[in-house]
Amino acid sequence: QVQLAESGGGLVQAGGSLKLSCAVSGLTFSRFAMGWFRQTPGKERELKREFVASIGWSGGATNHADSVKGRFTISRDNAKNTVYLQMDSLKPEDTAVYYCAASPKPGPVKVGYDYWGQGTQFTVSS
């Protein structure tokens, strides 16, 4: 059974930093691209999750959304089956539920994710 478990959410002040983690089990982690997505409050009906960042199999290739480029950094540790999202210079508009996801594609893709975590919420206060 594939499981993705996000952690690290909470409350942080604007301008602060936070690091999310996603522990993965039940699949060959090093053969899956990993991504982070977010869903903001009030948009549940749209069922749309915004792409945040992704990373390829080896971690050498990454892709970050323009809205977070220069502030967020995705990384992975294949020995620990874990993907991370370091978030700096946080803004209130970063408030969301953050989801990690796994794709069998080798590169840092924005779509094509087969497995999803349950999400972790964090709030950036102004």
Count the strands?
A: 11
Percent helix range: under 10%
Mean pLDDT: 93
In the predicted model, the low-confidence regions spanning at least 5 consecutive residues are: none
| Sheet of most strands | 7 strands, mixed
Q: Distance between the terminal alpha carbons, to the nearest Å?
A: 40 Å
* Order of SSEs: EEEEEEEEEEE
Report the β-strand fraction as a percent range: over 45%
Helix/strand-derived category reads mainly beta
Rg from C-alpha positions?
13 Å
Separate helix tally: 0
Apparent shape = globular
Sequence-ordered SSE layout with sheet pairings:
Blueprint: E1 3-7, E2 10-13, E3 18-25, E4 33-39, E5 50-55, E6 62-64, E7 72-77, E8 82-87, E9 96-103, E10 115-116, E11 120-125
Parallel strand pairs: 2-11
Antiparallel strand pairs: 1-3, 3-8, 4-5, 4-9, 5-6, 7-8, 9-10, 9-11
Features of the shown structure:
4-stranded antiparallel sheet; 126 residues; 7-stranded mixed sheet; 48% strand; single chain; globular; mainly beta
Summarize the structure.
With 126 residues, this protein is mostly beta strands.
Can you offer a commentary on this structure?
With about 130 residues, this protein is mostly beta strands. Helix content is about 0%, strand content about 50%. It has no helices and 11 strands. Strands 2, 4, 5, 6, 9, 10 and 11 form a 7-stranded mixed beta sheet that branches. A 4-stranded antiparallel beta sheet has the order 1-3-8-7, with no helix packed on it. It is globular, with a radius of gyration of 13 Å. It starts with a strand and ends with a strand.
